[in-house]
Design goal:
alpha+beta, 2 domains, eight-stranded antiparallel sheet, single chain
């Protein structure tokens, strides 16, 4: 009897164990898709403020990119619009109201290169599904000129409250100036705005005048003089410069996003790379292709770099510390800077007092004109609150947006989202880690 009971107990235990293992091994059910088209069902979509949007859009994964709540983003697996997969959606607010919603179906940086047949197939499916969702055929729209010999093609669907446009752009295979260019798909995206007759937000998307820019300067009781530049977070695999440029253009009231900026050149990511003048070269291309003006405030050339190394090594000799050279750093500029002692670097840069004072003066003058500056610097060399860079420094474009004479600080911002809208560095630290300084602005501004 005991033996029989033991057998029964063992069988029961085995059954429970097998059931447990089956449950553990079973694939987890996929999360239900987040259907972005549900936004269009909101009757007050284009009149709601940020608080109302947050309440209804939180379930779709939208999070604010900045404390001013100028833009909310969502992305990741399971994001859809009318059954079409999306990797990202951005809701932009202007004047306290929703101004437009952009849903990305394809972006070259995020989704990788595709051939013409794949691009056409994805485009045709998008048009078909959106027409079924809208219950009407698409209305063809005139093409818009894009940068770098590209154009943005469009079609639209409109109901009583919302205008939905599908936009796409690709560079066709061609021979240009004796150079063969392969086909390049850039993006397929949806853009929604209020329909005609629906009151739109007090749009910031109109070109600013010089008087407009000066009126946007903020002067705080603590001594801060600063500009509020819209936060634009870069796409996961996009160029930091593309997102930084979009921030500047949006500040000026111009409608060019980071995907259109990225059309200018496949090599824009080089602006965070291993060359002194990579940022300057990329900004020149952007200015030429987008009809802007580039002002070179300060730039580092080969001779400037050699002089810095020489000044640093003089200070290192006096302090009986190790000298540096490009050869000893494996011809890697980032590694060379990382090998420098921060105090000695400050000492070496401080020798150039005329250049340092000019740097401070140019930043202050630009801010007082309401114009932000694009700053190329060694991020990670100087410890910064909220910034965790270990192992090496990296060259990245950032924005200088203000100063404070009471505290001796320069004010800056990074495009990393909430918490990075406003940062501070001592003038001496900013001078020590800076490489170059530029202004990118429309031609109509002085």
């Amino acid at each position: 009897m005991n033996r029989t009971r033991c057998q029964l107990v063992c069988r029961a235990c085995c059954s429970v164990l097998l059931t447990f293992l089956a449950v553990v091994a079973a694939p987890k059910p996929a999360a239900p898709p987040r259907q972005l088209e549900t936004l269009c069902a909101w009757p007050n979509l284009w009149t709601m403020n940020q608080d109302a949007f947050q309440q209804v859009a939180h379930s779709l994964g939208f999070l604010w990119s900045d404390v001013q709540r100028g833009q909310a983003l969502t992305g990741g697996e399971g994001l859809q619009f009318a059954g079409l997969k999306s990797h990202e959606a951005r809701a932009t607010f202007e004047g306290g109201r929703l101004a437009h919603l952009v849903v990305m179906f394809y972006g070259r940086a995020e989704s990788g290169a595709i051939n013409p047949f794949q691009f056409e197939e994805q485009l045709e499916r998008a048009q078909k599904e959106l027409s079924a969702w809208a219950g009407q055929a698409a209305l063809p729209l005139p093409d818009l000129p894009g940068p770098a010999r590209t154009k943005v093609q469009r079609c639209a669907w409109t109901n009583a409250t919302t205008r939905t446009e599908l936009e796409w752009s690709a560079l066709k295979a061609q021979v240009l100036e004796g150079r063969k260019l392969d086909f390049r798909a850039d993006f397929i995206r949806l853009r929604q705005t209020p329909a005609a007759g629906v009151p739109a937000a007090a749009s910031a998307a109109k070109p600013r005048t010089a008087a407009d820019l000066k009126a946007r300067i903020k002067r705080e009781a603590n001594g801060d003089v600063l500009l509020e530049v819209p936060m634009v977070m870069g796409s996961a695999k996009g160029s930091p410069l593309s997102a930084t440029t979009e921030r500047v253009l949006r500040y000026y009231g111009l409608n060019f996003d980071q995907y259109q900026v990225g059309q200018v050149s496949d090599s824009l990511a080089a602006a965070s790379g291993n060359s002194f003048n990579s940022l300057r070269d990329s900004l020149k291309k952007i200015a030429q292709k987008l009809g802007l003006r580039l002002v070179v405030v300060q730039d580092i050339e080969q001779r400037d770099f050699q002089r810095l190394v020489q000044d640093y090594n003089h200070a290192a000799t006096a302090a009986k510390l190790t000298k540096v050279s490009l050869e000893s750093a494996g011809n890697d500029i980032c590694r060379l800077y990382w090998n420098m002692d921060l105090d000695l670097l400050r000492t070496a840069k401080a020798k150039r007092t005329v250049d340092f004072n000019r740097f401070k003066g140019e930043v202050s003058k630009s801010v007082e004109a309401g114009v932000p500056l694009i700053w190329h610097c060694m991020m990670g060399k100087v410890p910064e609150e909220g910034l965790n860079v270990t192992g090496s420094c990296v060259f990245l474009p950032r924005l200088l947006i203000g100063y404070n004479t009471k505290t001796g600080a320069v004010l800056l911002t990074d495009g990393f989202g909430a918490g990075h809208e406003l940062k501070r560095l001592k003038w001496e630290d900013a001078w020590a880690i800076g490489l170059s300084l530029f202004i990118l602005k429309p031609n109509h501004l002085p």
